[in-house]
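Researcher: Next entry: Lysophospholipase (Piscinibacter aquaticus).
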Amino acid sequence: MLDYRGYGKSSGRIESEAQLHADVRAVWRAVAPHYAGKRVVLYGRSLGTALAASLAAELQPDLTMLVSPYTSMEAMARQHYPWVPGALLRYPLRTDEHRPACAARCCCCMATATS
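Model: Predicted structure:
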């Protein structure tokens, strides 16, 4: 489990979505050697599902579990806050862009936030 920049016990500040993806890949590079030759399961929950799906599309792990996934932050905002302009979103976090690449080994759990 990791804390993104500025969350939990992590310091720093998120300046871009690219930083979030870079943080996830840095954690992967740090832990992967400890699990070489073993089955890999990536897990993403809620906001982390876009990041997990993106990493899964790249790595093609044995299984990817997306718990409470959503299509994109724009779709989520449109559903819950339709009066807020989409241009105000700083991070699109598009789960839908990466799910097709990991669909064969992807398990989406619980109800999705948007269809």
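Model: Note for the record: The mean pLDDT is 84.
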